[in-house]
């Protein structure tokens, strides 16, 4: 049984009415950590000895076929197809080609990588924190989110706007405080809201409630929930707290289990 089947089994066990598979779709060649706390066997296995990783080609047809098999096998579960596109504003043609292969119900746009300041390729936040000031990394991340939202119309949900917070170097920089970046967060949220997109509440780490409040204040109309599970046991982790927080900030579920949560006030 493949991991998509196991994920469906888990979703049924949890009593979830719907599940969306947002498979990673990456085109940015980036440098991964080959040692230290953020090194991953999976990623280093795909990378050169120096850590340079060229994402493998995404098999859109195979993926959509696997979705259909899951739908046949789990008729009581609403199964959404989807992708999480990394940096689609840098790879418009490649992103469009994949989306043209079939129906993708939920398309997330995400920013994982930033260019290194010395022009030496791209890394995720941990590699950025090693080379520049922590506040500069977050500011640069949020500025690039604006370019992502303005530079691509291929996606409808902005994934994990708090991605660099996962790796925030607390020992050197102290606890993460979103208010130190209020202007930058608000600007990125406003641009996202004005583009008509939804905000993903990723539960990999809890989203700071202040950021959700700013989303509402800046005109955000919808939210969605993502557990960034990567394995069946992690599906829907943190959803109880995340949905409570969304309700407290004026968002409610739609009539269908696969709807985004919409703003009610
Ligand atoms: Zn992501």
TrEMBL record:
- One family name in Pfam for this protein: PHP
What EC number(s) does this enzyme carry?
A: 3.1.3.15
Q: What class of enzyme is it?
A: hydrolase
Question: Which ranges carry the PHP domain?
Answer: 3-203
Database matches in InterPro entries: Histidinol_P_phosphatase_HisJ (IPR010140), PHP_dom (IPR004013), Pol/histidinol_Pase-like (IPR016195)
**Gene Ontology molecular function terms on file:** histidinol-phosphatase activity
Reaction catalysis annotation: L-histidinol phosphate + H2O = L-histidinol + phosphate
Alphabetically ordered keywords of this record: Amino-acid biosynthesis, Histidine biosynthesis, Hydrolase
This protein's pathway reads: Amino-acid biosynthesis; L-histidine biosynthesis; L-histidine from 5-phospho-alpha-D-ribose 1-diphosphate: step 8/9
Which family does this protein fall into? Belongs to the PHP hydrolase family. HisK subfamily.
State the PANTHER family in the record: HISTIDINOL PHOSPHATASE-RELATED, HISTIDINOL-PHOSPHATASE
Please report the name of this protein according to its UniProt entry. Answer: Histidinol-phosphatase
């Amino acid at each position: 049984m493949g991991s998509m089947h196991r994920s469906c089994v888990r979703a049924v066990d949890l009593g979830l009415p719907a599940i969306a598979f947002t498979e990673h779709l990456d085109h940015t060649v980036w440098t991964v950590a080959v040692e230290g706390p953020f090194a991953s066997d999976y990623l280093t296995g795909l990378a050169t000895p120096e850590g340079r990783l060229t994402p493998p080609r995404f098999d859109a047809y195979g993926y959509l076929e696997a979705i259909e098999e899951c739908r046949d096998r789990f008729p009581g579960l609403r199964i959404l197809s989807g992708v999480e596109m990394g940096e689609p504003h840098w790879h418009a043609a490649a992103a469009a080609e994949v989306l043209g292969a079939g129906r993708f119900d939920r398309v997330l746009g995400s920013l994982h990588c930033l260019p290194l300041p010395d022009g030496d390729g791209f890394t995720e936040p941990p590699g950025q924190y090693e080379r520049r000031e922590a506040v500069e990394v977050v500011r640069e991340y949020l500025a690039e989110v604006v370019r992502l939202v303005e530079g691509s119309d291929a996606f409808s949900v902005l994934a994990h706007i708090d991605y660099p917070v996962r790796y925030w170097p607390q020992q050197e920089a102290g606890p993460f405080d979103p208010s130190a970046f209020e202007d930058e967060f608000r600007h990125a949220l406003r641009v996202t809201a004005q583009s008509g997109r939804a905000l993903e509440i990723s539960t990999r780490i809890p989203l700071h409630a202040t950021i959700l409040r700013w989303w509402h204040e800046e005109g955000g109309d919808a939210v969605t929930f993502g557990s960034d599970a990567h394995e069946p046991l992690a599906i829907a982790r943190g959803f109880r707290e995340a949905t409570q927080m969304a309700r407290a900030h004026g968002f409610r579920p739609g009539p269908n289990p696969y709807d985004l949560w919409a703003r009610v006030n």
